[in-house]
Structures are given as C-alpha cells and as structure tokens.
Design goal:
Layout lengths: L3 H14 L7 E4 L22 E5 L2 E6 L2 E6 L4 E6 L14 E6 L8 E6 L7 E5 L6 H4 L10 H8 L6 H5 L10 H11 L12 H22 L7 H7 L19 E5 L2 E5 L1 H4 L16
Antiparallel strand pairs: 1-6, 2-3, 3-4, 4-8, 5-7, 6-7, 9-10
Helix pairs in contact: 1-6, 5-6
Length: 287
C-alpha cells in the first residue's frame, strides 16, 4: 500500500509535471472507483491544474477549485505517461480504472490510475472541498507534523497495541503497515506494546523514529519517477517484507506475525527482548 512517503512523492511529481496544464478529458474505465456523483468527472475538462497535495495517504489534484481526490488503497497506483492514446479505453478486466488527459488526447501527457488484483478498493472522489471526503474528514494530525508532546497526548490512555495505533488514520495520518514496522524497529519497541503504557523515554524514541524513518523515505522518494517508487520503497526497508533475513542492525532473524490477508515483521533482539511474538490469536509473548 502506498503510504505517506510514496503519496508525497506522487504529489511532488504532479506539482512538477501536471500543475499549469489543462485537463482535456477524463476517461472513467471502472465506474466503481467513483465514490461521488456530483460534481461529475466531466466537469474537470477544461480546468487548469493549480495544485497537488497530500492528506494522509490521500492524493489531491486541485483543478481550479474542483478536486480529484484519490486513495490508492492496497494495490492502486498512478502511472504517468508523456503521451496517452487518443482512443477512450474500453471497460474490461484489466488494471486500468481511470485516465486523465492533460493535453490533447493522443498528443499530450497524463496519467492512469490502475489497480492490481481482484480486491478493488481504489477510490476516487470529485469534490469542491477535500474535507468532503469521509477519510480525509476523519484524519488525525499528519505523522510528519506531530510534535513529541502531541504524540504523547495521542497515546495517553489508549489500550490498543502500538502497532494498531500507528496505523489508525484517525489517530495519526499517513502511516501504514510497512512504515509502522520500520518505525517500531527504529524505536526498538514491540508491536504488541500497549500504546498508553509507554514510558516517557519510549515515547521520545517513538517520536524520533517517526520523524527519521518517514523523512528519510520522503527524501529517497521525492524526485523519483513514479514507476520507480515501489522499488525505492522496498530498498529502504530494514524489517518489513524481510522475513527470514538477518536484521541489518543486530543480525538476528527477522520474524513475522500473519493475519488474514496481511502480516507484519519485527526483530526479536531489537524489539522484544529476544523472544518471538505469539501467534496472532494470542496477545502475549511466547513463554
């Protein structure tokens, strides 16, 4: 799933390449991606692109006051092309969901929104105010903007695992499964630690890791071609997606806890005192 660094990089790419151009046409290939009816996608045509922004993990293309807001979900992506074909794409079973022409079709650039797999969760809203998008309206403070004391307040009294809290967009916006693994590894915290019981030193370590991991990922991602962002993300990960490989910090074997449809990774030596975490059906360390 694209998270804060990748979405920020895509917004940067659109600011560099789309702002100042005019929407010539929007082709909706999969109607199910549209979550709004009014305004219609046809109203984007003829509008100049005046900005590109990020709200948590939502991408926002400002077309002179009408916003095309995208949530890429787990398998969605934005693919930029210097020239897009003129013929409207036909609906089908392929990954293409929506196409935006930013110049005369067949002559100008633009981008496709695509989604791999069978679980179609890519979502697009066309709104006059991004706050009309339910997911944006519920967002907590941005993960790159929260102070140490604000983070402490967000965690105070919470009984959930810290892994769960970090990925709750209503608490903290922008962090998903992959970067929460990286942040907890950098902070040397167990994913199963209770959020509201972290010591003052642990909260400080978590805040430091939050900033350093995300800023490093943004620095590596911004300026990359959109097609290279996924590979750039993978190359910077130390524990996420590295089950069975040695931890680059201590050399211990990276372990995994699996859930239905997803998993998280961690290093026992760095994060759990050397003990492997229990199966997902348990909430304690193996004895």
């Amino acid at each position: 799933m694209p998270e804060l660094p990748e979405v920020e990089a895509l917004a940067h790419h659109l600011r560099e390449h789309a702002v100042g151009r005019t929407v010539a046409r929007v082709d909706v290939v999969a109607l199910n991606v549209l979550k709004t009816v009014n305004p219609s996608w046809t109203e984007l045509a003829g509008r100049a692109v005046t900005g590109a922004h990020r709200h948590g993990k939502h991408l926002d293309l400002d077309c002179d006051g009408l916003h095309l807001v995208v949530h890429l979900a787990r398998a969605g992506w934005l693919r930029w092309a210097d020239t897009l074909g003129a013929a409207p794409p036909k609906p089908g079973r392929g990954p293409l969901a929506l196409r935006v022409h930013l110049g005369p079709p067949g002559q100008g650039p633009g981008f496709d929104l695509t989604e791999a797999g069978t679980q179609k969760r890519l979502a697009v809203w066309i709104v006059r105010n991004p706050a009309e998008v339910p997911g944006i309206a519920r967002l907590g403070p941005d993960a790159l903007a929260v102070s140490r004391d604000e983070l402490a307040e967000l965690l105070a009294g919470r009984t959930e695992r810290i892994k769960t809290v970090l990925t709750d967009q209503s608490v903290l916006a922008g962090v998903g499964n992959a970067y929460s693994d990286e942040i907890l590894h950098a902070a040397r915290l167990s994913p199963y630690a209770t959020a509201g019981r972290l010591s003052a030193d642990a909260v400080t370590a978590l805040h430091d890791a939050l900033g350093s991991v995300l800023r490093d990922a943004v620095d590596r991602s911004v300026g990359q071609n959109a097609a290279r962002l996924k590979g750039e993300k993978r190359s910077g990960l130390k524990v996420h997606g590295r089950t069975g490989l040695p931890c680059p910090v201590c050399g211990d074997t990276v372990r995994e806890v699996s859930f239905a449809g997803r998993s998280f990774q961690y290093c026992p030596t760095c994060q759990t005192g050397g003990k492997p975490l229990a199966d997902r059906r348990l909430s304690r360390l193996l004895k």
